[in-house]
Amino acid sequence: MNLLVLSGCGTNLSRSFWIPRLFIQKAEEEKLLQVKTELPGHIINELIMTCNDTYLKDSEGISTRLWNEQHKLIMPDAISNFLFPYMEKEARELLNAKAKNWLLMKYAMQVWNRVSVAPYLKNAQKKRVMACCGGNGKPGTTFVVLDSEENWLM
User: Fold this and answer.
1) Is the peptide bond before 119 cis (omega within 30 degrees of 0)?
2) Which of the listed residues 20, 46, 57, 75 has the most CB atoms within 10 Å of its CB?
3) pLDDT, mean over the chain
4) Which structural domain range is residue 141 located in?
5) Do 37 and 56 have their domain in common?
6) Under 8 Å CB-to-CB from 55, ≥6 apart: which residues?
7) d(CA 21, CA 41)
8) 145 and 97 share a domain?
9) Cα distances (Å, whole numbers) of residue 93 to 9, 14, 37, 100
10) Do 37 and 75 lie in a common domain?
């Protein structure tokens, strides 16, 4: 199955963007689908023209003319075979990292909302969370769990 994905990456993206991104990544890993990223031809031509304006020399002479001819031949190949694949790889890695980070933040908020409330005891045989101290990784997040006799379990 081929799928064309052309999307912008704004700063205020919601669940409707990040969750499908993770499903697409997983399906790609399992070889269920193939995502192909392309730029429209006019964008590629504009990029080539910008590179030509930047790298071609204006002076006269045989060596300058040869330099310009070689760069005109090399530039489309360099963009399509080196620059664009690298940019695609970086974009995929960035989107995947942001999607995973978004999901982890959502999970963290759900966990925090559950453990930051007052102790809950439905019956005397169940465990209960008494305290939760959020950390940034050093020393980390700490949970204190007590049983019905108020003995530490963790």
Assistant:
1) no
2) 75
3) 76
4) 118-154
5) yes
6) 71, 75
7) 25
8) no
9) 13, 18, 14, 10
10) yes
